[in-house]
Every structure is written in structure tokens, then in C-alpha cells.
Amino acid sequence: MRDFRSILNIIGILLCIESIAMLIPMFYDLYFKNDDWLQFLYSSLITFFIGIILYFSFRKKNIKLGIRQAFLLTISSWIIISIFGSLPFIYSSSSLSYTDAFFETVSGITTTGSTVINNLQSLSEGILIWRSLLQWFGGIGIIVLAMAILPTLQIGGMQLLHMEHDDPYEKTIPKINRFVLELFILYIFLSIICGVLYFLNGMSIYDSVIHAMTTISTGGFSNYNQSLAYFNSFQIEIVSIIFMIIGSLPFVLYLQFIHKQKYSLIKDDQIKLFFIILIGIVCLTTFWLNTNQSKEIVTSFRIALFNITSILTGTGYTSSNFSNWGSFGTVIMMIIMFIGGCAGSTTGGIKIFRLQILFRGAITQIKKLTQPHAVFVMRFNGNTVNENTYNSVMGFFFMYIFLFIISAVCLSFFNLDFLTAFSAAASAISNVGPGLGDVVGPNGNYFSLNNGAKWILSLTMIIGRLEIFTVLVLLSINFWKR
Prior knowledge:
By secondary structure, the chain is an all-alpha fold. The protein is built from 22 helices and two strands. It has a domain at 1-95. The chain has helices at residues 5-21, 23-31, 37-57, 67-85, 87-91, 98-109, 125-153, 160-164, 173-200, 205-216, 234-248, 251-258, 264-267, 269-292, 297-312, 326-339, 352-370, 387-412, 418-430, 437-440, 451-465, 469-472; strands spanning 379-380, 383-384. Residues 163-173 have low confidence and may be disordered.
């Protein structure tokens, strides 16, 4: 446990990759003749210099990570990447304070989508591309984390993914490397298709690139203050809805489908429930808007379909100020913020599979009360859910709600009203983006919040993105013992 060389070596590699990524917005600024290109160059050189020092100083012939090192690597890599990712925001023409820059970077890398920038159109093209790149890399990062690391660490029931997809997790490095490479290629392919469809439906090439990266990653950053409402195009909204949903489904099932397991997507329990929830809430919201907001049925359906999909998937795009939908809108949006998409996707939230297991566990308990001598077996996707897995999901759910309450209470110390504090905490831990109300709602942002509140929300975003226990385990004394 005391040997941190492998961890520092891998972090060095990640920083070198991040420094190369910074060159992409640099070239954009050079093309558009913005002076910020120099700041991206300096930030890239600093990041690369630190990364290369870590890589060569702690290089080993055989990189071996135990479970404890894996926990430590997961949290430290996301924090360090966020620290260096803040540099362009600080030194470019955006001139954000370090608190705001770190908040914006964490919001990007965790694919949350909350922003502290008031006027997005005033930013250089490079900075806007950098925001989107952060979300795009964060999206593929969380997929790899969910597929290759969290099942091994047995976080919050994620060990079920071992049972579902044993083949990609064979104990050989070549198998794992091939699996991650296939995921990355698929992710790039979907991003390109999304961008092309945006372009064919009226976006410029520049807008298409930005929104493709933040749609497939379910991040939600836009280069316009009005989000996708700026385009006022139903065709663009349909493209966005399709790829928000694609980003919310298990990516490993796409690979299984490609490898000729044709019914993998249809048979998955998570996907079935995801669409049932989505369709049900869209229909209910359409009815509400039509009867209580005096909107035509077609208009109501369009508004409900886009905004419900966006919040349920944790993307955070908006085409309407749902804070004005009345009490129903407030309640329904607060609820679906917590749900999220499927495990193994780019979304945040509690995840569909955990809700299924909790519900089936409750049904099993009721059956045991009526038939105390009977033996009941709980199943998920045809696999038996043992007691340890069920307890793991229960523990995750409890800590999720507990940390949400703690975050909301801490925010209230900064004189935020009830709706702002609770919705901001829910949005942060679920990695959604917009909250509710006038301050952090669809028409607001997080700029006016106290610096202390921004640091609390930054920490909450990281904890929520890394499935809570990955972070909390570091607080255990036993974790640090040999």
C-alpha cells in the first residue's frame, strides 16, 4: 500500500494526454485569430512538463495495482486532471478566479454541465471547445471506470456487471486493453455521427462539434446562454434526444450487439425500465402542460420530450424554463434528477439497475412476511442477486441520500433559499447541471453563489461521479493500514 509509484506513473500519463488535448483548442484559437492560443500553449507545456516528470520518475517495468491503489488512483486522477484543466480558464480571456475555474472544470470533467459563466458568447472559440472537450473525455472516462474498475471494487452493486458481462473482464491485460479500445472507437464513432446529423439539420460545423461532444457524453455544455433553445429547431432537438438516450444506455451492450449478440439491447432489464420511466413521465408532463399551461398538445409534447429526456439522462440541455411549470414541474424534475440512466453509461444519478434491485428486494421482503418458510430468489437480468450485492445497493442508496442532505444543509449556510439549496445539491450529486428556481435554474447559473458554496458543489460533483464509496473509503483508517 505504501508504494505509490504506479499511481504517480499513471497520473503522469494522464497529464500528458491532457496536455495534448489542450492543443486542440489552441489550434481553434489560432484559426480564429484569438490571442488565447498562447495561454493554451503555456497551459499545455506546464501540464506536459509535470506529467512527463511523474512518468519517468516513477516508471516501473510492471505496473501492478491492488484494490487500495485502484481506489486512490481513481479519486486522485480526477482531482489532479481538474486542477490542471483549470489553467486555461484562469489565464485566458475568460479570466475566471481559481474557484470559478476549478468549478467549471469539475463540472466539465464530471459531465455535470453547471456553469459559472454569465455570457458564453463572449468567450473565445478555444475556451468553448475546451469546455466541451472536458465533458467528452469525462464521458469516456466514466464508461471505462464503470466497466473496468468499479465492478472489481464492488461499488454500490456494480459487481453485477461482472455477472452480466464476464467476457470483457477476463484476467488478462490484452483482453482488457482490447475492450477499452473498442469502447473508445465506438465512442468516437457515435460522436462523429451525432456531429454530422447536427450539421445536416442546420448547425454550423463549429456548433456541431461542440454539441456532439456534450450530447454523447450527456454533459450539456453549450456555447449559447439559451442552450439548444437558441436554435429553435425541432429537428436538432430530435437528434439531441436520440444521442442523449444512446449515451444513457450501457455501452458494453452496444459492443455485444456489434459482436452479433443481437438481442442484448432488447433483453436488458435496465433498458426496459429506462424507456418505461421516460415514456411515462413524458406523457404525464405533456398532459400537465396541455391542461394547466394552456399549451397545444403538439407543443406540450415537444417541450416535455426534450426537457424530460435531458434531465433524466443528466445532460442538462434546456429548451424551456421548467421552473415555470408550476408545482408539478418542480416536483417531477427534482425526482428525475436522482434517477439517471443505466449503469455503464455516461450518465450520473442513482442508476436504473439500483432502483430495480431495491424494488425487487422490497417485494421479496413482503413475500417473506406472507410466506415465512418459503425461499425466494431475487434476480436481475437472469442472474441471482445475493445478499451481499443487495446490501451493497442499500448502502449506496442510503449514503447517496445522506450526502445529498448534507450538501443541501451546507449550502443553506450561505443563505441560499430552500429550492436553490436542495436543487443545486441534487443536481451536483446526480451530475445533471441546471437546478430549479431563478438562481440556478434553466435561465440562471452558479456565478452568484458564494465561493464556499462552489467548493461544496465541486466536491459533491466529484463524489457523485465516482459513485460515492470510491471517495468515502479513503476516509477509513483501515484503508491506510498495511
